[in-house]
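Here we describe the complex-level prediction in full. Unlike the single-chain runs in Section 2.1, the two entities below were treated as one system.
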Amino acid sequence: MYRAPIDDIRHALFDIAGMREFLERDLAPQLTEDLVDAILSEAGRFAAEEIAPVARIGDEVGAKVEDGVVTTPPGWRQVYAKWCEGGWNSVSAPEEYGGQGLPAMISMAVLEMWNSASMGFAIGPTLTIGAIDALEKHASEELKARYIEKMVSGEWMGTMNLTEPQAGSDLAALRARAEPRGDGTYRIFGQKIFITYGEQDFTDNIIHLVLARLPDAPPGTKGISLFLVPKFLVNEDGTLGARNDVFCASIEKKMGIHGSPTCTMIYGDGRFGDEPGAIGWLVGEPNRGLNCMFTMMNAARLAVGIQGVGVAEAARQKALEYAKDRKQGRVPGTHAGEMAPIVKHQDVRRMLLSMTVLTQASRAIAYACAHASDMARFDRERGAFWLERVNLLTPIAKAFPTDMGVDVASLGVQVHGGMGFIEETGAAVLLRDARIAPIYEGTNGIQAIDLVIRKLPLSGGEHVRGFLNELKQDAEAARASNQDDLGIAGARVLEALADTTEATEYLLGQLGAGKLDHALSAATPFLRLMALAAGGALLLRGAVASGDPARAKLAFYFADNHLSEVGALKRVVIEGSDSLIAAGDLLEAV
Amino acid sequence: MYRAPIDDIRHALFDIAGMREFLERDLAPQLTEDLVDAILSEAGRFAAEEIAPVARIGDEVGAKVEDGVVTTPPGWRQVYAKWCEGGWNSVSAPEEYGGQGLPAMISMAVLEMWNSASMGFAIGPTLTIGAIDALEKHASEELKARYIEKMVSGEWMGTMNLTEPQAGSDLAALRARAEPRGDGTYRIFGQKIFITYGEQDFTDNIIHLVLARLPDAPPGTKGISLFLVPKFLVNEDGTLGARNDVFCASIEKKMGIHGSPTCTMIYGDGRFGDEPGAIGWLVGEPNRGLNCMFTMMNAARLAVGIQGVGVAEAARQKALEYAKDRKQGRVPGTHAGEMAPIVKHQDVRRMLLSMTVLTQASRAIAYACAHASDMARFDRERGAFWLERVNLLTPIAKAFPTDMGVDVASLGVQVHGGMGFIEETGAAVLLRDARIAPIYEGTNGIQAIDLVIRKLPLSGGEHVRGFLNELKQDAEAARASNQDDLGIAGARVLEALADTTEATEYLLGQLGAGKLDHALSAATPFLRLMALAAGGALLLRGAVASGDPARAKLAFYFADNHLSEVGALKRVVIEGSDSLIAAGDLLEAV
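The structure predicted for the assembly as a whole is:
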């Protein structure tokens, strides 16, 4: 049974991500340490006692669709209602619309808990938060006034409609179109796929944000506009009007997150209303729709990274619980005729320790990214610096934790042995759920390319250099400590950071020399390299700050057992591209 | 759609695993190169045209049970009947019982194809082959005469009943019991779980091999005996008699291989027959049941390793096909307004190339293990040497390909992007199916421990040293070639083999010094290290032997992009255990 890891979350916030200094500087004046603790504790209770109990039925029954009407799994509506009542939908939302305006460090910490309890449940509200964000930053005052408050309270949910069958990673290929009606509104036509919670029975209305092209729009990504398309039109007094011409044609049968309805949405086929075309309102400038998306994309990517942290934490807890209970084999000290709990076996310990440190390193990176986004928002003087930091960390914070979510959940299955493959145990579903996170919100390959091509060159490479220097200070502080474990671990992390610097400079050099293929082919191993090195440094930072010998031991384990991969990855980054480029054409020849 | 990779399989057999010399020496006199080709080609056709088409319905419908009666998925019975008619059940079976007595290299090559087509289908007959093997080596002439022929023809299937709820990896905890009836037969009582094809509708009778304890048996593994327990008793004339007191109480709902009924079998609860107790016959000596199992365990473990190869191959083909078809984004040379197939993107190429070489390295290792078992059987003069080689290679050939099956299938999901998570695409099911193989037939952790504790010390360590020296010769030959790719790859493989030697000697030293914990905690990274180094050397052997520049490029890619991990793993093996042992106790404290 999931228990919110309040100690670990608090440690990651205060000892690693910068919450302590954030509070001390009073950057978000309403926020106190007591309030943080109260929120974490109450969120932990809600995740464990309300959401987690409906996770299994969500997987087993799944979301259903009939004639465009989606039914979520039994009990999910009720949990959503309670969740809104508890104010959880409004944690990060702007205060002027009834939100609590809390920092991302808080909203991401509680989001981790929702995802540990049920990824399929948590992803719905996550999309609404993204939609609120986009509207608040780009919509007209009229639209804001009409829509945001009810989305903040949770009375209405929001969706993001980007993908079309021919346009996934490549949004330039979008075909959905918007025709002006002459009254400032538009008629939207097109098919959108993979729309999370595109239709549901949680709320009376659904506010779709839809990317589409205006009639005279230029081709490619510079001709895409963003529209607000409500399921039901909203009257001036806020009551619901006519059904808009949008419906859910089908939902996908997926490997995991079965409770989350993944919808194919049809806009403008004439099913509803007098004439075909879903009525929509432009959000932001014409042809600038992708810019509106970009402002929320960092947040959405971090939120998906947090899903990885959440599912890894759930898998870690479940495996550890099983390993303490399940008895097989003997170790020195086992009484005659008895068996030892498998947690006593070194090979099982390796799996459990790796699950633990990979989860913690993922959390540290994700929370550090949340901290940077809070600093960009609250620390006006260094806003530009922190925005670069968010931009640098976001692809890492999306990709690494989601990869680790899969790896940790898979290790969790393995710890359970044969029982891990049986659905009843609840280990397999975590792996099935986790598998989506490296794919959506920009595949992890896209993240790696973003990191290398767009983020390393920030401030001419100086930003990433500064980041690596900060991490070096953490490692130096550990090395200079008087603790054995930390001293060795500090040396290992410094070695990993030196490798990271070498790989970074190599890639900056390739980019500078116009060798784009070499940079692109090294992107995925580079992201992993940087995440491992950063994770090692951040775990050390936490161990030093907390003075907790247990955390020092875990940082030492991470440094010893996961950081030697950094040296290997450095070689792959620097030496591996030639053979990749040479062999690549073979794939097409077959 | 799966197409049997005849060229790759043939290459692995002839250029890597030793089939060429095996034929030249006429070790299996009836076997010719033409016959090998004919078998591979016909098996490839059967796998692609008969088995593969029923794979999806097997996953979607799954096996069902009602009142102890199991129904396999629609069409599966018919495919099994055709498969037996085609003689595929008897490929490896002894000739005196109607089998074809073909070498393991052949039976494993065709088994790979059955598994590429459908793991859930292929696993059933695999168990029968194991049961035949155990009976042929250990049963009385009377039992052999009565049972084996019909198991060879496929008229009856066999099962292996080892696991009980409290006894999985640790068979010492077995509780099933056997009571002598005084007439040379026994009554068997107990519950067995995870019994693959324990009940089914393919065959009229099912021959269960069951581990149980005699009344006065010593505790632990030295008190376990093996019994033959048919579902229906068999009359002297071979016709079926009374129903025996064994039935299927339930089948498991699993993450994958849904078509394979995984049964809980109840022996002796009195449901059938005059008095409780399933009637069984002792196979082999009393209390020597585990020895009977051990003789077939190597074969069964290799067969599971082959499952990993098969599912990886299927995933590789599917992802490559998708990547050539799916268009997103642009690369240099893409026409204006068009998109490039994603196979053109370097990051996608990295995934596809890794899928390819990891599949090929897994196949090379598994086939080399099959070759060793053939040599142990046919090369009487060096039988002892080859038996050691089988023993050394088996844990590697079980664990590495099954780990790669999961990794490659997961990469396959990733290549498909969002479509990979949709079940209809057929990529996700390969990952769900693949996930069992690292668990059953001895978890991969058990394999790693077996490798380190029991296999490295063979002949005082000389056997593994000899093996590594053979691999070095392959790498030297590559380095000495005049080809650029092979020369660089040869140097990399030599470096990896030097690391492997260092790690091996370190572990032998730890074992010699009685530092068991250090050896145990390093087992899993060591197995991976050795498999990667061996895989690199074997791919080079194949590239040199075939003279095929495409194979040289792939070996180069493997050496450049996967072998640097060997150095990292060496550090984990040698340096990682201290921190693991230090941190391990934390797990119990939580």
